[in-house]
Each structure stands twice: as C-alpha cells, then as structure tokens.
Design goal:
Helix content: under 10%
Number of helices: 0
Number of strands: 8
Largest sheet: 8 strands, antiparallel
Structural class: mainly beta
Strand content: over 45%
Shape: globular
Radius of gyration: 15 Å
Length: 107
C-alpha cells in the first residue's frame, strides 16, 4: 500500500510495501525538489549485521539495496527499559530519487 509524506519542504516521499510470501520489498521515491534522502534500518543489539557491497546480511536474512549512493553501518543507542541503554547497529542508506530494498530469508 502506498504512503505519501513530506510535502512541506517541496519534496514528496512516497513509500510502498509489497510482500509476495517470499520477499518483502520497500520502494521509496522522492519527488519534487532534488534532494538526497536517507533510509535507516535498525537492528536489535542481538543481531550483528554485516555489509557486503549493497547487501546487508544478518542471521538467516539478506537485505538487498538497489539505487543507493552510499551504505554504511554505525552504532546507535536505544532504551530497552527505563534508564537502560543498549547498543545496536543501524544501516544508513543514502539515495537520490528512488530506493528499492528487498528482504529475503536465506534458509
């Protein structure tokens, strides 16, 4: 189903999700003024993702990313409960105009 947000800055962000039972796909489109967007994929502290070019691999899953200008992993902190911070990993994906991300189960 499509979602449209963000028209206040001269840019419209459209996102669609598709699940065909085998793959889960997220498609992002930035329309209007040309800007660079960022997508963030947050992982729980128990998950240790690895980056191989345009593929983020974790446990029995892969996240294939198309049309990215840059992809990198960095740490982030989140609160699992009051006053208890945990450290997880976030995949940061920089893109222009469109981004296509596909989550696949490997096994």
């Amino acid at each position: 189903f499509p979602v449209t947000i963000g028209e206040s800055m001269g840019v419209i962000h459209e996102r669609t999700w598709e699940n065909d039972g085998k793959n889960f796909q997220i498609k992002d489109a930035l329309k209007g003024k040309k800007v660079r967007g960022k997508a963030y994929f947050h992982f729980h502290s128990d998950v240790k993702p690895r980056l191989f070019g345009s593929i983020v691999s974790f446990d029995d899953w892969t996240l294939q990313i198309s049309n990215a200008k840059n992809i990198y992993l960095q740490e982030y902190k989140y609160s699992e409960e009051f006053n208890k911070l945990e450290v997880g990993t976030v995949a940061v994906v920089e893109f222009e105009e469109s981004l296509h991300s596909t989550l696949n189960k490997v096994k």
